[in-house]
Specification:
Elements (H helix, E strand, L loop, with lengths): L1 E7 L4 E7 L4 E9 L7 E5 L6 E3 L6 H13 L12 E8 L10 E2 L2 H9 L8 H14 L5 E5 L9 H4 L6 H4 L10 H15 L7 E6 L5 E6 L2 E5 L21 H10 L3 H10 L2 H6 L5 H9 L3 H25 L4 E5 H6 L1 H8 L11 H6 L5 E2 L8 E4 L4 H12 L2
Parallel strand pairs: 1-6, 6-8, 9-12, 12-14
Antiparallel strand pairs: 1-2, 2-3, 3-4, 4-5, 7-8, 9-10, 10-11, 13-14
């Protein structure tokens, strides 16, 4: 069974074609600048040179058509007929409280997604465009919606509610939702497999550290708390997001600078985080290079990030009454040994002991970077959100 995984953005469309018999990626690519001048598709096939198609794509429907043409192309395609695609899995950022798991897409599901678009206005409208585009081109192919928030939907109310008037939740749906759910689910499952234990008997803290970062407390395979909140702005500082902040700062900022609320939120989302502190970059590679040359603000930005992640780890160990395993994943978590050291290298009082040699050697695949004497295992687990989407789609579209 072959699954097409689609992740649609406002002007982009990423895709992977996955053969579920062995869970291998047989093709992947991305359409960029959809609706803009200079749009193009980059198509990748294992063992072959990348193919770039400079083709005008006025909308997502044209992008989907171009993707299917690339997949069917006699020279660089990988299938002979559209009928070989058994189902399409769509990444949808927000499910509100309407869906707690992956669902097969029908008109009712699409309508609910449209109603909930206000909760993630930068993402869900684009996700819906991708769904509609695929439905228009692939009318008879079953499709599934896989939600970023679904993995966190079983958090207890005392964890997801904010201490504001209850009507804000009951009438306006204001609560902590959490994001990166497919990643947290995947790496916690993979950690359990690696440890050869039933996930129902494990307490795992998953650290998804990238340009967007979030931490999750996974108890018995269930997310019981997570750092991101009503939006992805809450939590640890990120590439350009501030993370946790006193909300009164927004009013003060507006009064002192004359900016409006839209500009203030953009300030916190796009101009803050390690970029705002360093004044240099949102890329940790740039920050470390500058830090090594004596840049104090770059060093401070890294220190703030690591300190806040460490605090969340401690908080979640308290919330779960301990932890069996800590997992680092995503771009920074998987690839930056010195960040892992700075976060977890001084947590011996919690039973966490990092083996620095193993930490430096961590490469592709799952790597154990804790000492044999460590009471808490520390793992580096490469994430694979597309595979989760494909698996979830398979489960509802058989």
């Amino acid at each position: 069974m072959i699954i097409l995984v689609v992740n649609a953005g406002s002007s982009s469309l990423k895709y992977q074609l996955i053969e579920m018999k062995n869970e291998s990626v047989i093709a992947k690519g991305v359409c960029e600048r959809i609706g803009l001048k200079g749009s193009f598709l980059t198509h990748k096939k294992p063992g072959a040179d990348d193919v770039t198609l400079n083709v005008e794509m006025k909308n997502h429907t044209e992008a989907v058509k171009l993707v299917l043409e690339a997949l069917l192309n006699k020279d660089y395609g990988v299938i002979k007929s559209m009928e070989e695609i058994s189902a399409v899995g769509h990444r949808v950022v927000h499910s509100a409280e309407d869906f707690k798991e992956t669902v097969k897409i029908n008109d009712k599901v699409l309508k609910v997604c449209e109603i909930n678009a206000d909760l993630a206005p930068l993402h869900v409208p684009a996700n819906i465009m991708g769904i509609k585009a695929c439905k228009e081109v692939m009318k008879n192919t079953p499709m599934a919606a896989v939600f970023d928030t679904a993995f966190h939907s079983r958090m207890p109310d005392y964890a997801f509610l904010y201490a504001i008037p209850y009507e804000a939740y009951s009438e306006l749906k204001i609560r902590k939702y959490g994001f990166h759910g497919t990643s947290h689910k995947f790496v916690s499952d993979e950690a359990a497999k690696y440890l050869k234990k039933d996930i129902k008997n494990l307490k795992i803290i998953t650290c998804h550290l990238g340009n967007g970062s979030s931490i999750a407390a996974v108890d018995g395979g269930v997310s019981v708390d997570t750092s991101m909140g009503f939006t992805p702005l809450e939590g640890v500082p990120m590439g350009t997001r501030s993370g946790d902040i006193d909300p009164a700062v927004i009013e003060y900022l507006m009064q002192k600078t004359g900016i409006n609320i839209k500009d203030a939120i953009n300030y916190l989302n796009k101009k803050s985080g390690v970029l705002g502190v360093s004044g240099l970059s949102s890329d940790f590679r740039d920050l470390h290079e500058a830090k090594d040359k004596g840049d104090k603000r770059a060093a401070l930005a890294v220190e703030i990030f690591c300190y806040r992640v460490k605090k969340y780890i401690g908080a979640y160990m308290a919330a779960m009454n301990g932890a069996d395993c800590i997992v680092f994943t995503a771009g920074i978590g998987e690839n930056t040994a010195r960040i892992r050291t700075q976060i977890a290298g001084n947590l011996s009082f919690l039973g966490i002991e990092i083996d620095q040699d193993l930490n430096k050697k961590a490469a592709s695949g799952i790597s154990e970077i804790s000492k044999a004497s460590s009471k808490v295992k520390v793992l580096v687990v490469p994430t694979n959100e597309e595979l989760v989407i494909a698996r979830e789609t398979l489960s509802v579209c058989k």
